[in-house]
Amino acid sequence: MNNYDPVIRRVKKIKKGGHHGGAWKIALADFALAMMAFFLVLWIINVASPEELAAIEGYFNDPAGFSTAGYSNKPIDLGGSPAMSTERKLDMDLPEPGSTPKLTDETAQREGNNGDELEKMNAMLVEQFKSLDRINSNNHSMRIEITPEGVRITLIDDPDKPMFERGSAQLVPDMENTLLSMASVFNQVKNPLVITGHTDSLAFIGNGYQDNWDLSSERANAAKRALVEGGVAQRRIAQVIGLADTVPYNRVNPDSPENRRISITLMTDSAYKRLLESSRRRFGGEKIQLDSSMTPETVF
């Protein structure tokens, strides 16, 4: 008879290939969120105007600081009643168009001799331009604003009273007379001028390969020639460029006639120096650093 107790063996079965957890799902969700944020930033950069981009940059440079707005927040009445601007912004809390990237620019603009000079020049231009028949009969065709670069005069096209012949850079007589009259006003100051031409987003097909780039550039040059003919010295022309439809005035409706315009900016000395320095850095030749130990004997 066997007195030993029975031995019971228990086998633990392990299932292979089972569930390994959901960590990969979290990683995938984080990646998708990051990509969505990245493309959202790209979209904002694409649709924002240069003024809004400057305002956003100013905020991130100094989030707790004061507003870096550069334009005057008071509308200029040229004979009509004040109207709400059609400019749409990404954020209603952003300052008006024309923000400066640095607080020092805002301080320099609103304080000291530079700020006083801009205010006086702005007031002089408004007073002088009131006497122009074109402005009296159609005061919404000209807008004057104080910007970080200086005082900007924007001449906006009107379908009922256009500035140029349709699809060309030929000034209509009325607009040519206006620019000639403006030249005499500009001669009362010595500030350099920047002239930019703009079009709407409607496709323009001219002779050969002409498009909106050619049209905006030719119209800017036509405005320059009229100002020079009116007495503005050639040496005061700092820049003449065509921007096609890349900087619409009315971003809500890129086809709006408002986007067909000529802008003339009377620049401050500091803005002119920044423009020259930027142009030298971007388009100038490379600087050559000569070795101080070099002598004619070692070279030849």
UniProtKB/TrEMBL annotation:
The chain crosses the membrane at residues 21-45. Pfam families: MotB_plug, OmpA. It comes from Marinomonas fungiae. Residues 77-117 are annotated as: Disordered. PROSITE patterns: OMPA_2. It is a single-pass membrane protein. The lineage of its organism: Bacteria, Pseudomonadati, Pseudomonadota, Gammaproteobacteria, Oceanospirillales. The keyword Transmembrane helix applies. One of its GO terms (cellular component) is plasma membrane. Residues 151-270 form the OmpA-like domain. PANTHER family: LIPOPROTEIN YIAD-RELATED, STATOR ELEMENT OF FLAGELLAR MOTOR COMPLEX. This is Flagellar motor protein MotB. Belongs to the MotB family. Keywords: Cell membrane, Cell projection, Cilium, Flagellum, Membrane, Transmembrane, Transmembrane helix. It is found in: Cell membrane. It comes from the Bacteria.
